[in-house]
């Protein structure tokens, strides 16, 4: 592994910067070094500066998917979600089945309040990485935003069946059950969410509402 990237993974940012800067000096025409330096700057929240390095990498290699992805992450962290969505799609032009890039493109469109545009990206990401609870969960949320409650409930149920316990998935599954007036099942989901995360405010409200409905 490159020494600069090794330092970066260990959180030794000053050492990483020195090593990565030397790489650029030694090989100024290698786009990988600019991508790595951009990733370093992005990791310390210097997003505008990071974009300069990603752009330089793209000048050297217009097809550098990693540069588009890195630039997309920088824009996403800087809350420039439209730009992020465009950049992630450029990266997907080179690697259309990269689950992480598909996920980030979908999340960018969700942040732009465009769930219909987000849906195909999140659906494909969850298909490629069915064991990723967050990818599945966000796909379920997207379906819920589009009022497809029945399909959303199926996805939330899949998340609850994964090894990693996901309080928000149980809460949202409970909301789906409540929508269909299946109050016992909804109550069980809210209680499970509170078992995982005792301070889950929304699940607490949900449990109270279901208890009131069942006691009428």
Automatic annotation (TrEMBL):
InterPro entries: TPR-like_helical_dom_sf, TPR_rpt, Ycf3/AcsC/BcsC/TPR_MFPF. Pfam families: TPR_1, TPR_16, TPR_8. TPR repeats lie at residues 31-64, 65-98, 133-166, 167-200. The keyword Lipoprotein does not apply. Keywords: Repeat, TPR repeat. SMART domains: TPR (SM00028). PANTHER family: CELLULOSE SYNTHASE OPERON PROTEIN C, TPR REPEAT-CONTAINING PROTEIN MJ0263. This is Uncharacterized protein. The lineage of its organism: Bacteria, Bacillati, Bacillota, Bacilli, Bacillales.
């Amino acid at each position: 592994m490159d020494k600069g990237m090794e330092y970066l993974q260990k959180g030794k940012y000053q050492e990483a910067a020195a090593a990565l800067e030397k790489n650029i000096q030694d090989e100024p025409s290698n786009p990988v070094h600019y991508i790595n330096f951009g990733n370093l700057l992005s990791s310390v929240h210097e997003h505008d500066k990071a974009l300069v390095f990603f752009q330089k990498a793209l000048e050297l290699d217009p097809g550098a998917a990693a540069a588009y992805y890195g630039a997309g992450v920088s824009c996403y962290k800087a809350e420039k979600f439209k730009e992020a969505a465009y950049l992630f799609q450029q990266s997907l032009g080179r690697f259309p089945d990269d689950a992480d890039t598909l996920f980030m493109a979908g999340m960018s469109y969700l942040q732009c309040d465009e769930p219909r545009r987000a849906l195909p990206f999140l659906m494909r990401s969850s298909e490629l990485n069915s064991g990723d609870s967050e990818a599945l969960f966000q796909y379920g949320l997207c379906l819920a935003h589009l009022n497809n409650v029945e399909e959303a409930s199926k996805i939330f149920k899949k998340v609850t069946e994964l090894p990693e316990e996901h309080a928000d998935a149980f809460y949202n599954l409970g909301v789906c059950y409540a929508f269909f007036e299946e109050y016992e099942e909804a109550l069980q989901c809210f209680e499970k969410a509170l078992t995982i995360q005792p301070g889950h405010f929304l699940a607490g409200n949900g449990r109270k509402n279901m208890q009131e409905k069942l006691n009428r």
